[in-house]
Amino acid sequence: MSMQTRPDSDFNPADLGQQSNRAWDRVFMWLLFISLAIGIITLVVLLVYVVTKGWPRLDLGLITNMPSIRNPEQSGVQSALMGSIWVIGFTAIIALPIGILAAIYLEEFSKQGGRFQRLVEVNIQNLAAVPSIVYGILGLAVFARALALGQSVITASLTLALLILPVIIISTREALRAVPRNIRDGSLALGATEWQTAYRQTLPAATPGIATGVILSLSRAIGEAAPLLLLGAVTFVTFNPDGMLSGYTTLPIQIFNWTKEPREEFQVLAAAAIVLLLVILLAMNFVAIWIRNRTQRRW
Amino acid sequence: MNELDASIRIAESLSETRHEVSIDIPNPVFTLNGVSVYYGEYEAIRDVSLDIAQGEITAFIGPSGCGKSTLLRSFNRMNDLIVGARITGRLAYHGTDLYGPEVDPIEVRRRIGMVFQKPNVFPKSIYDNVAYGPRVNKTKGNLDDLVEESLTRAALWDEVKDNLKKSAYALSGGQQQRLVIARCIAVRPEVILMDEPCASLDPIATAKIEDLMHELAGDYTIVIVTHNMQQAARVSDRTAFFTAEVDDAGERHGRLIEYGPTRQLFSAPVDQRTEDYISGRFG
Amino acid sequence: MTIAAPQINEDELRRSLRQMSPRRGEAIMRAILVVAASVSILTTVGIVLSIVIPSIEFFSEVPVWDFLTGTVWTPLFANGEFGVLPLVSGTLMITAIATVVAIPLGLGAAIYLSEYASMRVRKVLKPTLEVLAGIPTVVFGFFALEFLTRVVLVRFFPSIDIFNALSAGLIMGIMIIPTVASLSEDAMSAVPSGLRDGSYALGASKRQTATDVVIPAALSGIVAAFVLGISRAIGETMIVTIAAGLEPRLSFNPLEGMQTMTSYIAAAGAGDLATGSMEYKSIFAVALLLFIITFAMNMISIRLVRRYRQVYQ
């Protein structure tokens, strides 16, 4: 190879085309795509499987009948569905105000970068990753036994509220942060106090974002089963809750109970209940996405 | 008041770059003595002493990064909201130290209004934007009348009187900025601070805001920060020229270079740097 | 109809710059907000106290060393043994299987979404991955047992236990893909595009840019995603309770059933235990170990995330 040759004299337009050693690049890209596809294919298989398996029991009786150990064909999830509604209702009543107020404090009031704020922040990040069964231990020791609330709806709600609190706080803070600084400045420059500014300007402007986060966190609570195993939900319940100290079961717990039954009919029933649970969660997700898209605001 | 008669004293300290500028202003609204504003360790603007005249329009001009907006934001304690911001020296409002222990920043902001660079209307109706200040301050009286008066004063009433319930976002940029001024007037402040109020507006909207400023002068003391020298020359009675200086440690600090009646500062600047700036040689 | 600015009377003014009203409502609201923010700290304190106090009683009867090194876990027997290693090995085995699935697939999905996918493809695939993250774990457990084990795995491994570590681990791996993928993608998105442009300008391909520039630059965030994903696998309860069985067994054969720390807590806690019994106290001792392990991993992850945020933001 002569070094005297000017480089451009060797230039061949075909060199600008794709080189053969780019083949590995294509393989790499396909491997990446397959990684992503495996998760999604599993999701699709799961959905198809539970729908086909649960199909024979996807009827009105599923919702209107009470659970039964003897008659899987006649068994339904009424008490579990009502239990879930009661538990989640109280969870929302407890967790929403605390979570939103805590987020307002962290985002709008506390000294940014101050010691208390950093302590709370790290604490929340850590709580968000504490295994849910550990919250069950907390609920068992504090709410069920120390506060003598027993194995009741309110024990479950308090426990689930603490479980989703970090998620609500984190998503509410993000929604508040998305409200531009100059809205707050405008309000404060008119002589509004910090709380007036938060309550009258920042909070309303952030409401769609907060609502989205809240719905997603509640949908997490609806599907949660592990902590409730320790809080009495496993007992066989064929009545709807009638108050916050009432006994209860929930949809995920009822599903769990049926997975332990050896007879195939109960697996069909479990699959049907799963479809019902997923439909509820999907509906909540759609509402959340709808709120997010409908109110997307250009500042 | 004869501006040209106002006496100007320039005391040059030993350092070549330091000028201490002061003008005798009777009964000033603001009196600054050696005011510096810091963000954390960084001194954004250093050692400013000047008086702001009542009922006049005072313009702060200078290249970007000279600390003029920072200084303006310390007039109504908006810098309190920025973590790490602090002020040294004395900034008095009618003789009361604005940063004194007894002074409440919220009361300060009710006295001293502010208009921002971008028209920051609230995501509410036009009416609710104007009514916001009186509502949070629990002002007594008829709110409808106050809203109408304020919008009239801001030369916006005729354009919006039929659409008061419409979202403020439906307005044009210039209308939004006049709405922000109306919102500010509704709190009945004595001073209106304007931080580059026309920076995001087209020339026609800018002209309307400038007309409005002339209308409001006299009743209100206005301090305006602007990049635009022509604007300062058109609207203001007095002009303060700031620039950024680099100190021995290589850090930039805003400094007040020259302050005087606008006509005089533009026609016969005392300092070479002012002359360079207004003649377009830098900045 | 004009509003004249109020004439300023010096004395009146001096008064008015002071706080005019006590603003009691403001003070009350601020106090309420502080209390709300403190609830999360009380939660942590509550968790620690409710685990540690019964654990102290437990360890007064079972030496810590015997607990940590014992290989037999028989809490139900009259003279029960409390060696936690079978539960730890079960946890580690299932977590290892889940990790082998989730780390390559999660990272691959993240690289694809961050570096390759067009805006339109991202807009569809990312929410789909989020749906996967939103599936309740009890559903994954059911799927692992009824579909993966009974329909699929029995064909390949006829000798497999109906309750086994393999199916629980595989499905758990799928479950934590979204965690690994979305946190890794956050880290990769935070890499300034200037670094990518620099690489492309030198003639590097997309693959070379991804593996030689973006991944090293985002490494601390990616490792944080791995750590958090593994921590989630260790703490996951329902999949293992349903699909991996409830037999504490010190074994390294994934085709056998195993009990994990979490499934022990769930199974033992679901019964109506007498408060003073050793079995009741053992739940808390296992929970303490679980909490310490996941807490340490979470803190490592939080530190790593903070590191990459400091570099690029």
Task: Explain this structure.
Chain A has eleven helices and no strands. Chain A has 299 residues and is mainly alpha-helical. Chain A has one domain: Orthogonal Bundle (MetI-like fold), CATH 1.10.3720. The termini of chain A are far apart. Chain B has a single domain (3-278), classed as Rossmann fold (3-Layer(aba) Sandwich). Chain B contains ten helices and twelve strands. Chain B has helices at 68-73, 105-111, 126-136, 143-153, 157-160, 173-185, 203-216, 229-235, 262-267, 272-278, and strands at 8-12, 19-23, 30-39, 42-52, 57-61, 85-93, 96-97, 112-115, 191-195, 221-225, 238-246, 252-261. In chain C, 74% of the residues lie in helices and 0% in strands. At the A-C interface, α1, α3, α4, α5 and α6 of A face α2, α4, α5, α6 and α7 of C.
* Class inferred from helices and paired strands of chain A: mainly alpha
Q: What is the global morphology of chain B? A: globular
Sheet with most strands: strand arrangement of chain B:
8-9-10-5-11-12
Please name the two chains that share the biggest interface, counting residues whose Cβ lies under 8 Å from a Cβ on the partner chain: A-C, 89 and 85 residues
- Supply the number of structural domains of chain B: 1
Measured by DSSP, the beta-strand proportion of chain A falls in under 5%
Quick one: how many beta strands of chain B?
12
Number of helices of chain B: 10
Biggest sheet of chain A, open or closed, and with what strands and sense? none
CATH architecture of chain B: 3-Layer(aba) Sandwich
What's the Cα radius of gyration of chain A?
27 Å
Count the beta strands of chain A: 0
SSE succession of chain A: HHHHHHHHHHH
Helix content of chain A: 55-70%
Report the end-to-end length of chain A measured between terminal Cα atoms: 62 Å
